[in-house]
Amino acid sequence: xxxxxxxxxxxxxxxxxxxxxxxxxxxxxxxxxxxxxxxxxxxxxxxxxxxxxxxxxxxxxxxxxxxxxxxxxxxxxxxxxxxxxxxxxxxxxxxxxxxxxxxxxxxxxxxxxxxxxxxxxxxxxxxxxxxxxxxxxxxxxxxxxxxxxxxxxxxxxxxxxxxxxxxxxxxxxxxxxxxxxxxxxxxxxxxxxxxxxxxxxxxxxxxxxxxxxxxxxxxxxxxxxxxxxxxxxxxxxxxxxxxxxxxxxxxxxxxxxxxxxxxxxxxxxxxxxxxxxxxxxxxxxxxxxxx
Amino acid sequence: xxxxxxxxxxxxxxxxxxxxxxxxxxxxxxxxxxxxxxxxxxxxxxxxxxxxxxxxxxxxxxxxxxxxxxxxxxxxxxxxxxxxxxxxxxxxxxxxxxxxxxxxxxxxxxxxxxxxxxxxxxxxxxxxxxxxxxxxxxxxxxxxxxxxxxxxxxxxxxxxxxxxxxxxxxxxxxxxxxxxxxxxxxxxxxxxxxxxxxxxxxxxxxxxxxxxxxxxxxxxxxxxxxxxxxxxxxxxxxxxxxxxxxxxxxxxxxxxxxxxxxxxxxxxxxxxxxxxxxxxxxxxxxxxxxxxxxxxxxxxxxxxxxxxxxxxxxxxxxxxxxxxxxxxxxxxxxxxxxxxxxxxxxxxxxxxxxxxxxxxx
Amino acid sequence: xxxxxxxxxxxxxxxxxxxxxxxxxxxxxxxxxxxxxxxxxxxxxxxxxxxxxxxxxxxxxxxxxxxxxxxxxxxxxxxxxxxxxxxxxxxxxxxxxxxxxxxxxxxxxxxxxxxxxxxxxxxxxxxxxxxxxxxxxxxxxxxxxxxxxxxxxxxxxxxxxxxxxxxxxxxxxxxxxxxxxxxxxxxxxxxxxxxxxxxxxxxxxxxxxxxxxxxxxxxxxxxxxxxxxxxxxxxxxxxxxxxxxxxxxxxxxxxxxxxxxxxxxxxxxxxxxxxxxxxxxxxxxxxxxxxxxxxxxxxxxxxxxxxxxxxxxxxxxxxxxxxxxxxxxxxxxx
Lengths: 291, 361, 334
Ligand SMILES: Nc1ncnc2c1ncn2[C@@H]1O[C@H](COP(=O)(O)OP(=O)(O)OP(=O)(O)O)[C@@H](O)[C@H]1O
Ligand SMILES: [Mg+2]
Fold this sequence. Notes:
CATH class of the largest domain in chain C: Mainly Alpha
Oligomer: heterotrimer
Strand content of chain C: under 5%
Radius of gyration of chain A: 25 Å
Mean pLDDT of chain A: 89
Order of helices and strands of chain C: HHHHHHHHHHHHHHHH
Largest interface: A-C, 95 and 96 residues
Number of helices of chain C: 16
Number of domains of chain C: 2
Mean pLDDT of chain C: 85
CATH topology of the domain at 60-239 in chain A: MetI-like fold
Bound molecules: adenosine-5'-triphosphate, magnesium ion
CATH architecture of the largest domain in chain C: Orthogonal Bundle
Structural class of chain C: mainly alpha
CATH class of the domain at 60-239 in chain A: Mainly Alpha
Shape of chain C: flat
Order of helices and strands of chain A: HHHHHHHHHHHH
Largest sheet of chain A: none
Helix content of chain C: over 70%
Low-confidence stretches of chain A: none
CATH architecture of the domain at 60-239 in chain A: Orthogonal Bundle
Number of helices of chain A: 12
């Protein structure tokens, strides 16, 4: 049994190391956001300041980039979630050989480096939008191209997420609705869509976040425009300032709040489900007594 | 309103596999009709063909005299209770019940009213706003029935609706179902592999095996006058004695079995030399000596006392035992294991059927 | 008709082939329940689904890729001459990867960059597999539900920090004025700061760090569904722990391993941020070469050719991994 204690100790040590590796850099960066020197340094801690957050707030380029990032993110969500939904439904309705071909095409953006998606998007749409002067003036823009480029692979994420839930759909539900007189479109709106709603919500969140943090595709597709991440890249290239750390702190804080909210919501949902089950058990008992 | 259902030489194939083979039936309007058969024999397939989810490979289905060819499931005057109920988990109980009305464009008030009425019928008054997941198994069951009844179908199709329930509740729901059927007065087509259910509830029963309808009759007929070895061995307990017909008259026949010549009724008019099986039910076999043509002797393997009756297991010809079920009457002395016992029966309870497939144990 | 316009035809051929295949398979009649696509979805929804999927697969996926490939077979021309007599098909761009077009010598620099990129990406992939496997196994098999949830939460938070900031964080740590060098010099191990960035150590760390979680989630998902009894049975039979992993866990987790490896490799080889901010000047990452052709040399055809070479390498690697693990694409990516 001694060896198992050693194993346990080693495991604990390893887990600590792992999380040190994962969080260490982020923590050091976070400290530099509150330290006074203009070179981001963690130690020695020369004085607490919030000036880097203020700098960030006044950073015009970053704020512009942020706005663009949000617009692009929303654009990607509006395109990708419906595409993912449509693709998962079609995938579900075709047979195996056609299905594997379809799968290959739809999944290929996930196996393609982001830079290549960005490049091909720019090359293709430059000529496609370039066909008329009007379309060139209206659509050949960084924001539009970024949405198109990102939607190419984000749609695949959405497909996978929605598909995962769709495969758990009980066909009997569909048949029950039909049997009660619903048309197929009614089945879609009344039964299938509500069932897929949670997956579509997660797909939306994932789509927005993937779009928001994307660099590889965007850096090509954004052309002369900018997003928060491309501005960030430019800043990082030029030099280092604690303002970047401040931004990281904000993102970490938002992720933390998001993750904790998600966890709490999930717990509440589980508790509610548990209550339901308890009630069902009670009803069961009552009925047995009656019978 | 109610309607009858006719199956006219219906065959359903999945690829090369024939799930239903040339089924012809006439289910009367207002009847409680059951399909009884072992798992995988094609019961669900027949039901899905009637409700319109499957198209027959050959033959036709008529409901109320009207051919259903080309009429989709959502246009047929049938409602189906699914094997797993298929209630909509994201809707409340009332919404579930009123769903059929919602898709027919009935307004909200009228829907609610109808739902309340039906909730009353299924003894769930005032529970319309609950979620389905809050209900017990039996309650879910009744909601599924109410949901199907809400659209006022002419035929209600039920696919093993009680199989998920607790045994005790199942007994209770049998009566409930039968009562509901009598109240609403529409045709019920009921599927089950539980013969108790089929026998107690149905006006008539179709016994199926491997896609073929073996016999259609009321419960008493199916039990007393089975037409095939399958029905004889599937419904209730039975003792088969295979052999060859050695004597045949208009009403009776004698079969040369491993225990010598034994006599029984001959409803199928078998002739001398035909391969046949004589069936005698355990409760009609009696211990003790009888006439030569209806008695035999064999060794006692074991005796099982069950309170209201006792099963005596006798050594049969093949591996299978012969069962004699003895009721609680004083006179007979129970044999012990290893004894030799005389067994006899009344010729009217012996049934000679042509050789054929039997039910698996 | 120009070759660029011909590209348009290819996807339509594919679609036609796909449509015929779907028709044929549904006609085979596996299933008498089968309703036609239009019956099952209605006209309006049916058209909407097809339009959405067609837009995606045609205009966002296949056409841009094909177009890029076609571009790579063209010479570099000023816009005015595009489509003119000088715009012929050529493999010059691919040749330039092997033989430098300026001096006719072997193009060691670019081939070297490419090889370096592939080798380092593979190494980083393997490194991450080793780092993540124990934790994934622990979370999936031995941790209590409560603990696993907490660990999951801890993993998800840093997942959403973007690549740039992660590279930045690593850089702060290992820069010459960074915490690690401070510590090393403070303790007297070295007198001058170690140049982690110049030696590309920073980039290795950055690549591994950025893709850590990409590896752990597929591994976790794969191992989680393994029945605990199997491991216990193996332990009962007296198998030492490493044998349990070799014979039970790893074979079972194959799809997860394949999935994690392909994703990490692809993301590492295609990575731009870590090389941009964490690499030294002497050995460049291949994506940076591609990047420069677009933004500095403005040579799109050559950039496209290089991008295609990178893509081909990634596809080859994915195929290789799937072959090696005998996993189907559908199992690896879900
Ligand atoms: N879609 C299908 N494709 C191929 N074979 C099928 C399909 N549906 C049913 N079958 C086969 O047809 C046979 C009859 O199935 P069916 O569901 O009608 O049986 P059942 O009598 O309802 O059985 P159970 O009591 O288990 O519900 C089975 O052998 C089944 O495997
Ligand atoms: Mg069935």
